[in-house]
Protein: histidine kinase
Amino acid sequence: MTAGAFIGAPLLGVLAVGLATGVLLGVVAVGIPLLALLALAGVPVGALERRRLRLVDPAPAPSPHRSPATPGLTAWLRLRAREQATWRELAYAVLMAFVLWPLDLAVAACTLALPFLLAAAPAHLALTGGPDEGGVRPAKLWLVEGYPAACGTAALGLALLLVLLYPLGAYAAARAALARLLLAPREAEAQARLAEVTRSRARLVTAFEAERRRIERDLHDGAQQRLVALSMTLGLARLDTDPEGPLAARLATAHAEADAVLAELRELIRGIHPQVLADYGLPAAVEDAADRSPVPVDVDAGLPRLPEPVESAAYFAVREALANVARHSGATRAEVRARYADGALRLTVRDDGTGGADPARGTGLTGLADRLAVLDGTLTLTSPPGGPTVLTLEIPCSPRPPEPFA
Structure:
C-alpha cells in the first residue's frame, strides 16, 4: 500500500500543474488541448494499477480498452474519448491523487508503525547506550530500562502485528475491489469478449463471402467455359455426321447431356453468388428470384445500393423464404416488400398459404437467423395456423457510397 504514495504523490502534482496551466492558458485557447490531454491521464494510471492489482488479486485484470479499427494516433484518441473505460480511469486517477494514497499511508502508519516501534525496542535500547543511559520509551508509551523488558516489548509488538494483519488485509482487499470495479469491471471483460466474438464472426462471414465469390468466378471462367466449348464441339461433330447413322444418335444424346450439365452449372453459379446481385443490387436480384419462383410473387423493392454482406444476406433470405413458400405453404401468391429507412433495411416476405411454419423443422430459417445476427440483424417469423405467413428481417446498415465514374 505504501507503494501507492510513489504513484499518488507525483500524480497529484501532474494533475494540479496540468489543470492550473490549462485553465490559465485557456484564455488564449492553448490550454484547451492541454485539458483534453489531461483527460487521458487516467489511461497510464489504469494500466499501472491493473499490474499492481495482481499482487493482491490473482484473478485476471484485462484492459477494458478496445483496439482501434484503423492505425494512427487520431483513431486511437477518437476511440479513447468515446470509451467509458477512459472516464472511469480518469475518475480513479483523481481519487488516487487526492484521497487514496494519503489514506493508504494513514492505514499503513496505524497498522505497521506501532508494532514496528515496539518490536524494535531491543535495538533502540542498544543504540542509545543500553540500560545505563536511563532506558528508552518505544512509541512514547512506557519506559524500558533493561533488555528483559525490551524483549517483552518486542514480543508484544510482534503479537500486535499479527493481530493487525487481518484488518490490514481487509483494507487491501477493499482497495483491490475498488480498483477492479473502476479499472477492470467484470461486465467490461464480458463485453470485450462479446465484441471480439462478434468481430470474429463478422470476419468469418466476410471470408466466407469472398470464398463464395472466388468459387463462382472459378466455375464461371473455368468449368462453364469448358462445358460451352464441349457443347459447341459436339454440335459441330453432329453437323459432320450422317444424321441417319448410329453415331449421330449418340452425339445427340451427349450434346443434350452437355447442355443439361451446363444449365445445372449455371444455376449452381447463380445460387452461389448471382451476378445480377453484384451488378445491379438487391432489387434486381429479388426480381430475378421472384421470376424463378413457381409461386407468383409481387415485388416492391425500392432500395439504394447497400453493403455487399447486407445485400447477400437479404438476397439469400428471400430465396430461402420463397423456396419454403413453394415447398411447404400451399400458397397461391406471395409478396416481397423491401425498404430502407431509419438506418436499416427492412424486408418482408408474405404469402397466403396455410401457415404453421416452424423453424425447428429444418426450413433453413435458423441458419438465416444466425447469418443475420452477425450483421446485428433480426429475423422474425409469424405463421399462425391457417396463415398468412410473414417473414420479416431487419438489418442496420448505411447505404453504399456511390462508385466513381471510370
Remarks:
- The two ends are 66 Å apart (CA to CA).
- The longest helix spans residues 186-239.
- Strands lie at 297-302, 334-341, 344-351, 378-382, 389-396.
